[in-house]
Here is the input.
Amino acid sequence: MKRRDVIRMGVASAAAGAVGFGARAFAQQKLVMKASDVHPLGYPTVEAVVRMGKKLEQATQGRLSIQMFPSMQLGGEKEMIEQAQVGALHYARISVGPVGTIVDELNVFNMPFVFRDEAHMRKVIDGEIGKEMRAKINSNPRTNLICLCWMDAGSRNVYTNKAIRKPEDLKGLKIRMMGNPIFVDTMNAMGGNGIAMGFDQLYNAMQTKVVDGAENNEPTFIAQNHFQVAKFFSMTQHLIIPEILVFSRKVWETMPKADQELIQKLATEAQFEQRKLWDERVKEAVDKIKAAGITLVTDVDKKAFQASVKPVWDKYGAKYADLIKRINAVS
Ligand code: GTR
Here is the structure.
């Protein structure tokens, strides 16, 4: 916010406060909200938030708008979460992966093979469980975040410089995982060596062979140029992790209710807009993977990988047993 705006806001709220119209006067202030994403402009999550910003501007005659900082300009997801928690950033689009270390219940979505497929995951986040999980994020005193909506991130697949068809193929390979012990345990159980590392360090780590590979969805593999440093993309589909768009709770609590409601309404629309963009982007990414000469390995022994992660289920499954039962029942 510019100094002039701060002064103007101070004057306006002082004057309005005297007559008891503080919220209304505050609602008149122009607010450019910062949003951040690790992905570049045009990526489905980024595009959905950019479009949401345009709608917001239109609905408020330019009073509320969103300024997007894409491509890790404000750091990796860990940094984005911290910035949103203190109110330096308004919106952060992040994966549920790292948030599971703050809101434990959310880790149920981080369990390997917990969803039958992506359609199953969508039904779960669109339904009652999705609503409950959002409420858990919003009410947890440690998050300091408001979860506005879900977004799609497809399935995660292993990429390295050899084909991965069965757990034995991963032997001796260091595979980067997101920062959450469940993921490291998952990769170790799948046969490789899981290495927790920030997304912002990954490209260099692959290039310098600090790690032998990583795992992610097709659009990320292309958008982050990982296809330049890993020549085999193997469809292990071991994790289907939804993403979230969060808002700084610190700022949220200072906003007029009408603004909160408008932002929430447009974020819900963004969830479904992103989903459409996502499906198109996956198809495009698969074409690009093939055009880049990457070997797309589809004959993966998924049953063997499912069996391999039993130790992860033995370690964490009991904790989430009730939720898992409910997730399984969603059809
Ligand atoms: C991507 C996801 C990012 C981040 C990244 C990672 O699929 O969109 O939010 O979680 O994976 O692996 O760190």
Remarks:
- Residues 1-22 have pLDDT under 50 and may be disordered.
